[in-house]
Amino acid sequence: MLLTEYEGKQRLREYGIAIPEGLLISKPEQIHRWKGDFPVAIKAQVASGGRGKAGGVLRAENASQLLTQAQTLLTMEFSGEKPRSLLVEPWIPHEREIYLALTIDVTAGGYVIVYSPQGGVEVENQQPVQYSFGAPRAFRAQALREILAPVESDGSLRERIITFARRLLYLATAIDAITVEINPLIVLSNGHLLALDAKIVRDEAAAFRHADLSAAIKTSRKREPRAMAQALAGNLMMVWLEGEIGLISGGAGMTMAAMDMIADEGAQAACFLDCSSNPTPAGYSLAFKILDAEPQVKAILFSIFGGGTHIDRVARTLHDILKKRRSKKPVVIRMNGTGRFEADAFMQSVGLTNHPTLEAAVTEVVTLASSV
Amino acid sequence: MLLTEYEGKQRLREYGIAIPEGLLISKPEQIHRWKGDFPVAIKAQVASGGRGKAGGVLRAENASQLLTQAQTLLTMEFSGEKPRSLLVEPWIPHEREIYLALTIDVTAGGYVIVYSPQGGVEVENQQPVQYSFGAPRAFRAQALREILAPVESDGSLRERIITFARRLLYLATAIDAITVEINPLIVLSNGHLLALDAKIVRDEAAAFRHADLSAAIKTSRKREPRAMAQALAGNLMMVWLEGEIGLISGGAGMTMAAMDMIADEGAQAACFLDCSSNPTPAGYSLAFKILDAEPQVKAILFSIFGGGTHIDRVARTLHDILKKRRSKKPVVIRMNGTGRFEADAFMQSVGLTNHPTLEAAVTEVVTLASSV
Amino acid sequence: MSVLIDKNSRVVIQGIAGNFGKFSARDLKAYGTQVVAGVAQGKNLKEVDGIAVFPDIRTACRETKADAIITYVPAIVAFDAILDACEAGCKVIVYPGDGLPVQDAIEVRAAASANGAVIIGPNTPGIISPGKAKLGFMPSFCFLEGRLGVISRSGSLSYEAAFRLTSQGIGQSTVIGIGGDPVKGLNAAEAVALLHADPDTDAILYLGEIGGNDEYAVARYAAQADAKPTAALIIGKSAPPGKKMGHAAAMVGSHADSQAAKVAALRQANVTVADNLASLCSAAQSALAQAAHLQK
Amino acid sequence: MSVLIDKNSRVVIQGIAGNFGKFSARDLKAYGTQVVAGVAQGKNLKEVDGIAVFPDIRTACRETKADAIITYVPAIVAFDAILDACEAGCKVIVYPGDGLPVQDAIEVRAAASANGAVIIGPNTPGIISPGKAKLGFMPSFCFLEGRLGVISRSGSLSYEAAFRLTSQGIGQSTVIGIGGDPVKGLNAAEAVALLHADPDTDAILYLGEIGGNDEYAVARYAAQADAKPTAALIIGKSAPPGKKMGHAAAMVGSHADSQAAKVAALRQANVTVADNLASLCSAAQSALAQAAHLQK
After folding, report:
1. In a domain, A220, yes or no
2. Residues of A in Cβ contact (< 8 Å) with C277
3. Is the ipTM of this complex over 0.85?
């Protein structure tokens, strides 16, 4: 779960990292609440990256300009996302922008501190230094100091960075964040550091021990389009795509493999829909309900290679669902895995066709979809 | 910093420990906001212990009884403390009350889980079991399981306790709590656990990495009587006492030792006032200002045995303060430690008497205080 | 041992009292795996299907000299269960569950390393050395004893791949499901190293996907002068960027996450990369043929 | 070594660039302590008062073979400074600062133990072995070489006590300020054990206070058959219950926290407990006399 800049900054402040005194507004008329000096920065609160380059951060010299800009920003879209709110902050003069992040080094299987002596929008052109240390208890100030030394000649700044890195680690472990990125982190004339931006990603798997995260996930799911919200509520993993082939599958790997194979046949999947987290009658029924209701879907491929999921049971479930189903959209089945002999026998007995290979099933469903 | 039951329960809920759905009110007329069933428990929110025995928890059968009880509780005092708010919760039927806490084992220098199979008000008569494990990473479910086994025969409950203990540890490290006590933790008929009370103590030393804790400390200091608030704001450690001898001292040990000696002489200190955290002209001036303004204080003992504090500098500061001071309250001085030769020479030169021993100084100040 | 497990592995099933645990016990025994104990925490159970059941992992391992475990417990208690298993003496720990917090995964990885143990998972069907032992819930009939080592980030894809290989008569030495999470117990680099050292493995097949860095670790391995011939299939070429495709790590954020970049890196390292599932067996066969050629 | 430090101790002063660090450097050298290095992190400083200054503890220890450190840094960075010191090879680490979070104190205690190091503090003036070495900022003139080992939870009280002892000609082997925090590096039980093992210490004087459990640890020690004769003074008898008296641990919560309960426990264990400061020296003398008697 990616926090907005404002939410992220509140977390930084909570854990002892200084941020500018800002004002969050959701309507232009709330602008009058800004009691600080000018100029100010006004920033669209969106989850998508590249906001700065897309014109999502503006500078206002006075109140009337600020109002105009607030009106403008609230009507803009950033990668298809409308800002729900705007953050107003003083425009802070500074000499240096640096980059500091704590994230996960998936190769090493642990935490990593990433530092670049030049932050801001140009950070992508930099080669940052990295301190990959694994478990939180393995973090050592001295190790980070030695890594920073060649790229950061300002000793006093180096020590502040180390202190901040320690706090980022404390914050990350306390709230189960998998990324805490500050870009830019600015150096004020007195040497102090201030976080001008914040990107915090929390680990959704840890929601069981964070009621606020759990609530935020629920809220964000409700904001999804109806089909997505339904799928997520039913514990199905779904991503909506552009194509016409509805795909009900089991396991992320085989779902993607089927998508790829559909693409190889010149067609396109309408969705990634993985039922492996809820391989029950309720889960499969919901999957059909969602795809049947979606006009974009012309035909459905039902593809399961079951390990823990016993496909003989899935076959019975599928038969029940298809019997009751009103939609006329064609359904093509390919199942294999645990229980396949029983499944095949049952399907034969009720007149369902189980395609022997994924290739055969994909060819069939692509043909059916294009002939609708 | 001791959190109120309500604040503590919010923390428990945040970290995945179930609590009853309650309503916090600060005025009796807010009682109508209670939309739940009856009977309910209504509980005074105070920091002092023994609330239950002191009548701070009542049971209301209906709305009118609830209103009366709210009015009653808000006028009561618990160890001199008026409740600032009341917590209304459903009265929850349950079969068992247990006790679970995470706190600090000062002997081992680490964390300890404390469990008693019988919680509630009778817990003090129980011999709880303890699992002292040191640093958070040393916590082992299996070790706790083996400690619980002899006292907790319900295996399924045992596993739930272990899961809860792990969460308490996560909570404690995430918010720098030094005590998280749930008493009682109740067992519902479905085997689930619910925290009926919560006592959380946060480590004030960790305020630098928790803005909320830092803010709470500031707020609670403002609530102190004026003299205390002044002392705390000036970084002086002060405890107000009943006596007549104002005590300005350095170091907790010597401050207590002087208090004890005053008591041995049949008098009583007006305060514990330790300036060692702020041994500056501003700190000492503030100490005199506070004691001079307090009519209870009849005479002042200024007692410093300096190590890091150089008493020759203190002597100069003291001379400046006494010159400008308007109060006529007698001041008795005893200083020793780093810089004592320079201090003695200076004091002699300006006509200040430095008593050679604490005994001599205490005898003098007690005499002066009783003759005022 | 072949890789990690073999006929001598002594297996504990944690969560044996549940339906899935009971099925798994029968399934593993049917495959010839030595299931020596079950664990049913908090339950007063003595035996399931002829297997002795213990109240905790430490007791189970002490009483039965077990050295491997598959643990069917929810993510909420997985951290402690895996720590317990590490310290009870299990050297191979399969954790099939998903939803283990990354922070917990990092900690158990460190704990396993400190205890000389290997964790397979999270989010994995487990590991199988066909004809020798199985520690997982993959469908047994898909697998055939042989000399191709297989590593897969996806469970379902590994069944499909093994089924195709087996249908073509290409047997497998060991098939390891490393799982789809960003932080894994055994990662691709470590899995490759195990297969590299295994005398029963002639060539390696890697089944990867978008997101994460595992594919680059495989490429680094394959670029070594002494690497065993390696084939690969990378799925997710049709996945849109910025969307998590089921697996927590399966997302194209940067270019390096994309299927195209990964395929290019693998090919650069002389890995035979299949274009799609249909050409998987020929890619594997090509790697095995290279291996046969090298051995001459 | 006497206890923890002696003439051979090679000391680093961290924070030597500050006023307090500079004073401390001169003060320790004046006492004959070998101050071999200073550390001024983040500062480009080569030397203070003839002492070589390094940018970090590891470099300082490597270059100067230092084995002890006194670290004047604020609590916010103390955790990392102490970890660095442990791993740089310092075997004795004095941390005088107060305000170290309990969680951090627990961690550094564990780290010290893992590295075979001892932390004195937090919230301590340090340790002194009169006539041999000083690692702290206690006023030197208060101390006299001798055979009484002293342990104190309070810095200021330890100066007063040492001054009284010295005035009476009662010398001290080592005076250890264990500090007033609830979780300490070296606690009373461990300090007593060190003095017990020290051949230069004949008897022990313990200066305690209300709150915490250290006094009971001392009583447990004194009750041992082979314990060295022990005297004690416990302050805080006039402190009201429920109020924290300066030190984080100095509060009477339960009866066990009270001065009376502690005095009773100590007397029960044959400790000579002084009623007040005035009788401190005679209590110490009585312990030393017992020791002399035992040695005959």
Report:
1. no
2. 257, 260-261, 358-359
3. yes
